[in-house]
Write a structure and sequence with these properties.
Layout (H helix, E strand, L loop, with lengths): L1 H12 L1 H25 L4 H12 L2 H12 L1 H20 L1 H30 L10 E8 L12 H10 L3 E16 L2 E10 L3 H5 L5 E2 L4 H5 L6 E3 L1 H8 L9 E4 L2 E8 L12 E4 L13 E6 L5 H18 L1 H4 L2 E7 H6 L3 H31 L2 H9 L4 H37 L14 H27 L3 H6 L14 H32 L9 E7 L4 H19 L5 E7 L9 E3 L1 E2 L13 E7 L3 H5 L3 E4 L13 E5 H7 L9 E3 L8 E7 L14 E5 L9 E8 L7 H11 L5 E5 H8 L1 H35 L1 H9 L4 H30 L15 H26 L4 H7 L1
Parallel strand pairs: 3-8, 5-7, 15-20, 17-19
Antiparallel strand pairs: 1-9, 1-10, 2-3, 2-6, 2-9, 4-7, 5-8, 6-7, 11-21, 11-22, 12-21, 13-15, 14-18, 16-19, 17-20, 18-19
Length: about 900
């Protein structure tokens, strides 16, 4: 076997020498046989003739030998390739158009696949990433929808009682004030338990990682920084180790730098050890990650954690009743919210590719039929059908590879555009790149598409009537079939695919418009948002934070152009804290598990006016609502409807276990705000004055309603903050930008699907135009005779348009049937829109009809201007 393989390889790369050896071998056999006949007494001429007759055809023997080595196949492939290049040069217009169409289809698919590959398919950049899981506290009645954070006592029990995990750790993270020397800025700081880095099997590139001793040492013991943070803030200087970061008024020496690319969780910049008491079992403020032991399946771990949760439920009914544990692979947890969107986009762009293939097939079908006389001549000269199909498919493969190469350029530009358009919450999208998988995808796509769009034209061109084709000229031999031949069927197919995309895009457009028009409960226009954090410990220096915000708000109110101002823990559209509330009385702890959920918000006086949240009854907070006065609260209408139906809540008592269990008197009711974005209904919400509550009171977002452009106040606000406290970091945005970010995912998928639908419709109508134009060119004699017999230009125009519209109507009907079935896949992405909305289907019918009329009118108008005398003379 190996000697045969070496012989074949030698035959490929040493062709000339092999041919010489083969000629010598054949000549030796003939001469040997000739000498044999000479010995029998024959003449030299007769001996030579008999030897050659006995040996057979030398050319046939050579061909058989080359076939056995696979050389003839390469010769034919090279010959087909050269011929394909010549044929493309003979029709550059068709070739260029086909390459452009396919490059767009392949490039769009490759661009979307590069994002899908980075987000969904590529493993996480850790050792054995499939063994990393997340653990969440969930409720029995809705485990998938109500995944929650975990309390440290619950985590400790999970850790101590489970045997499925190699390591388990809890963590939390948030943007907070970090100071290097005298410079204050925001950085994402992760607070982690000791086993956190064991879960990821990650080490340091400089210094060391956190150790158990760092936790025992208490606050300010050690900090790790990301490689990106090391480069951007210390220029990669090794002497950064030992320098200190000031976080929450404590100094944390840098003891290590983590490897490039590791920034879990949420693009963290700094990691510090979790210190302090574990807190109460009801305080669910942390997330949990773990690494499965080798050989332990996800199902085994889930079963064990379910049993542990059941034991804790019995042991701690006050806090754990109705709670279980959900175990999920971390990659699924990270990409769960965007998986459906990306697969929908990949499906949409695949339909575009199929339409592009169909369109190209129509182009090549016209080109192939015009070559029937050429094919007939080759057949008459002995070429087999298989040989002809092989030649035509070679042309298609060459066309596809050229389109694929150009498609890579389209994909590069497209992927950069996708990354720019992608919402900020799309995980791992920045990792999109043209790696070997993307290149392999493009190569495979080019090969597949070459057969998809090339096989039908190749088979059509190879099925000919030899006698008929040789008797007629090339143009006359292709008559017949009309628009409902193979080209018509292809056009119907691409119209139906385009209709499916149009229906899906229409539903998303209507959903996005509804999302934009929904009442948010506040007015985001002309509102500047300045997030600021006073670097103090909440339990110690909260007075300084209150003083900073009070002084800042007082100075901001005097600025020209300021209409009103306030401050809130989390601007509308973002929820920073949730919990439970208890009305009128503080029941025993055992009853808390059934208490209703509530959004907890800390605000300053004037916030409702600055945000445009209507005060329905009662009063707003004032500067007199301080800790030495009766604690007060403002609630929204959703809370009133739930707990005080048909009653006035003013003067009633409410308890919110936030940072105190002190009773709060309800002093006002405000309108509902969509706290979690426009897609979700308002939850009950309890607002508390920042002068009475310390938790998170050191970080507030100042909101300023302006008479003009809110960005014009950025500099004055920055100056006021710096004058009051230079160690306070700030971040600026606007409420309109925050609202826009809340609908970024919906906007992203809607925009892309609309682009795909428009591109698909243009390609489909191009196919209709090509089919009708071809039919008109082939039936010009018939049309001329009709006109000579009395048909006027109007009747010819209507006749051709009717044929084009019949073609489009068939595709429309098939497409609508497909859309009814396929649009249900986008149901979860729709807002206040049903997947079978009749207005969408009527709109698609109108758009498709108008586009088909336009695509048909141009060739129909050309047909109506045919000169009957010229047509009859040609006939």
């Amino acid at each position: 076997m190996w000697s045969d393989l070496r012989h074949r390889i030698r035959a490929l790369f040493r062709r000339e020498r092999l041919e010489k050896e083969l000629d010598g071998e054949l000549q030796f056999h003939i001469e040997h046989q000739t000498e044999k006949y000479l010995g029998l007494g024959l003449t030299a001429e007769e001996a030579s003739r008999r030897a050659r007759l006995e040996f057979g055809g030398i050319v046939d023997v050579k061909e058989q030998y080359r076939d056995s080595l696979g050389i003839c196949f390469l010769d034919r492939a090279a010959q087909d390739l050269r011929f394909a290049v010549r044929m493309m040069q003979r029709s550059p217009g068709v070739t260029g158009l086909a390459v452009l169409i396919m490059a767009l289809g392949i490039g769009a698919n490759t661009a979307v696949f590069s994002v899908v590959n980075a987000v969904l398919l590529r493993p996480l950049p850790y050792i054995d990433p499939d063994r990393i899981v997340t653990l969440a506290s969930i409720t029995h009645d809705a485990p998938s929808a109500l995944a929650q954070q975990v309390s440290i006592p619950d985590f400790q029990d999970w850790h101590d009682q489970s045997s499925s995990f190699e390591a388990m750790a809890y963590y939390s993270s948030r943007e907070t004030a970090v100071m290097i020397a005298s410079t204050a800025e925001y950085a994402r700081v992760a607070v982690v338990s000791p086993d956190f880095f064991r879960v990821f099997k990650i080490g340091s590139v400089a210094g060391r990682i956190l150790a158990d001793e760092d936790v025992k040492a208490g606050g300010g013991s050690a900090a790790l920084i990301s490689y990106r943070y090391w480069q951007s803030h210390f220029a990669g200087d090794p002497h950064a180790l030992g320098q200190s970061l000031s976080i929450v008024s404590a100094s944390w020496p840098i003891v290590g730098v983590l490897p490039p690319g590791f920034q879990f969780p949420q693009d963290a910049d700094v990691w510090v050890p979790a210190v302090g008491p574990p807190g109460e079992r009801s305080s669910q403020n942390n997330l949990v990650v773990a690494r499965l032991k080798p050989g332990t399946s996800l199902e085994q771990a889930q079963n064990q954690m379910t049993l542990i949760a059941a034991r804790l439920e019995e042991q701690y009914p006050d806090t754990n009743k109705g709670r279980s544990v959900g175990v999920t692979r971390m990659r699924d947890e990270i990409v769960g919210s965007v998986r459906a969107t990306l697969y929908m986009l990949l499906g949409g762009v695949t339909l575009v590719l199929l339409i592009a293939c169909t369109n190209t097939a129509i182009l090549l079908l016209g080109k192939a039929t015009s070559r029937r006389r050429e094919v007939a001549l080759r057949t008459a000269l002995g070429a087999s059908r298989r040989r002809i199909v092989s030649q035509l498919i070679t042309e298609n493969i060459l066309l596809a590879f050229i389109a694929g190469s150009l498609g890579l350029l389209v994909a590069y530009i497209g992927s950069k555009s996708l990354i720019a358009l992608a919402p900020s919450n799309l995980p791992r999208v920045a990792e999109s790149e043209t790696d070997r998988w993307v290149l392999g995808f493009t190569l495979g796509l080019s090969i597949i598409t070459s057969f998809v769009f090339g096989l039908v034209p190749a088979l059509s061109a190879s099925r000919i009537d030899l006698n008929e084709s040789l008797k007629q000229g090339g143009a006359r031999a292709v008559r017949g079939g009309g628009p409902f031949g193979m080209r018509g069927l292809l056009a119907i197919a691409e119209i139906s695919l385009a209709v499916v995309l149009l229906c899906s895009a229409g539903l998303l457009i209507k959903s996005f418009v509804a999302l934009q028009d929904v009442a948010l409960g506040f007015r985001p226009e002309n509102v500047l948002v300045m997030r600021a954090t006073v670097p103090v410990r909440p339990s110690v220096g909260i007075a300084r934070a209150r003083q900073f915000f009070s002084d800042a708000l007082a100075k901001i109110a005097t600025l020209p152009g300021v209409v009103s101002s306030g401050a809130t823990m989390a601007p509308p559209g973002n929820v920073d804290s949730t919990g439970i509330y208890l009305a009128d009385r503080l029941p025993p702890r055992a009853e808390w598990a059934s208490a209703p959920r509530v959004v907890l918000s800390i605000v300053a006086p004037g916030t409702f006016q600055a945000l445009g949240v209507p005060l329905k009854s009662g009063r707003d907070f004032s500067a007199n609502d301080t800790t030495d006065k009766q604690f007060v609260a403002v609630v929204n209408e959703a809370l009133v409807r739930k707990s005080f139906p048909d009653q006035s809540p003013l003067g009633r008592t409410i308890y919110c276990p936030f940072d105190t269990l002190s009773p709060m008197t309800i002093i006002g009711v405000v309108g509902d705000v969509r706290q979690r974005g426009p897609e979700r209904e308002s939850m009950p919400e309890c607002y508390m004055p920042y002068l009475q509550h310390g938790f998170n009171g050191a970080t507030l977002s100042i909101v300023v309603r302006t008479a003009g452009d809110p960005d014009s106040l950025t500099t004055p606000l920055r100056r006021i903050a710096n004058d009051l406290s230079p160690d306070v970091p700030m971040k600026f945005t606007t409420m309109e930008a925050l609202v826009s970010a809340n609908v970024a995912t919906a906007r992203f998928r809607t925009l892309l699907l609309v682009i795909f639908a428009v591109l698909a419709t243009c390609l489909a109508m191009g196919g209709v135009y090509g089919v009708i134009s071809y039919a008109v060119s082939q039936r010009s004699n018939e049309i001329g005779i009709r006109m000579a017999l009395g048909a006027d230009a109007g009747s010819v125009l209507r006749f051709i348009i009717r044929q084009g519209l019949m073609l489009s109507a068939l595709g429309l009907v098939i497409g609508l049937i497909g859309a009814v079935a396929s649009t249900r896949a986008v149901t979860s992405m729709l807002f206040q829109v049903r997947p079978n909305d009749p207005s969408i289907y009527l709109g698609v019918i109108f758009v498709t009809g108008m586009a088909a009329l336009l695509a048909t009118y141009v060739p129909a108008k050309r047909a109506s201007k045919i000169d009957p005398l010229v047509a009859i003379r040609e006939e």
